[in-house]
């Protein structure tokens, strides 16, 4: 293929804001809500100060000095507790990074419980501080004491006590490995369900390599805007076939897709540049992987937790066993869900964008290959993996799914190193035979 047919889209330095994965958006909205509440309560206090309205007598609890003491105590207590909450948050992120891997930090940062807890404390501090500043007692003037705002500040402070208790309980649950794995598994099921196709899978048509579309920047291919790609391909009457799937790390200038011209002539350089420009706008390439269109990333996260658990520094085999069991359930979901739609057509039914197909064997290898290498000297880990494979095989019916699972069982058994303990090898062999017996029964069914 000539260099003229290689189209490099214009590189754009895009830095999309992760609205969910941050610790500042929800607290900022809470602070803005506190400011709005402050102006409302101050409006009512000012109206009562001008005798425009009459508030209940029990609201007034003393003079300006009493209000200042109450608000000063509230502000001091809240800012101290907010520092405690932020310290717990930083400690949680540190534990997550060291024990579960840095790729799971985003999962903790997007937790709504943490964001709302920080927001409530920050909002209470801002409201109380603004109320404290509004108290005035000038000479020859009637003191202005916004007791309604003071009561609201006290109510918010009481809510902070409940929030602190909730937050400590929430964090204690959040860092448990079972909670994390269940959350990752839920994300995997959601992604698989969103990308599943309803109609029967059709064979992908052949696409000539009339031109090549290259990566505009370096990073992880996180998302493809298929609707936009289909509109672009229909506009220029071309068909695009991707060489890589979302989740792949690409480098600038790397071939990402090939295209077949239907009515476009090879010499139209201007039209080719337009295709490349539109192609670059439909890509999301960033420094981190995303679960949006990459179910394998969920498997990689569970595998990373298992590998860290089996490391000498952590030495937590029970966590590894739990990860293997959740991985087996994830593979069951993938096998029982119709495969994702890989052919995207225009309104006339013409294939315009063709994805690279996913194979069940690729997911099985991503789940078991790394763990098999570290569990080869652990009889318990090998047995758990073989038992999980046996349980998974009971849920499978198609040979295309049973074959890669059976291959993993063979590799686990062949690679197991008993270290001279014959009893351990007998136990692993018994687990291997159970798994193979289940697979033969499923194949015969």
Task: Describe the structure in brief.
The protein has 445 residues and is α+β, with helices and mostly antiparallel strands.
Structure description:
There is one protein chain. The protein is an alpha+beta fold and 445 residues long. It folds into three domains: 3-15 and 199-286, Pyrimidine nucleoside phosphorylase-like, C-terminal domain (Aldehyde Oxidoreductase, domain 3, Alpha-Beta Complex); 25-175; 295-336 and 359-444. 60% of the residues lie in helices and 8% in strands. It has 14 helices and nine strands. It has helices at 25-49, 64-100, 105-109, 112-134, 147-174, 177-195, 226-236, 269-281, 295-309, 317-336, 360-374, 379-393, 399-415, 422-444; strands at 6-7, 211-214, 219-224, 238-242, 249-250, 255-261, 283-286, 343-345, 351-354. A hairpin with a 5-residue loop joins strand 8 and strand 9 (351-354). Helix 6 (177-195) runs parallel beside helix 10 (317-336) and helix 12 (379-393) runs parallel beside helix 14. The longest helix is centred in the N-terminal third of the chain and has 37 residues, at 64-100. The chain is flat and about 95 Å long.
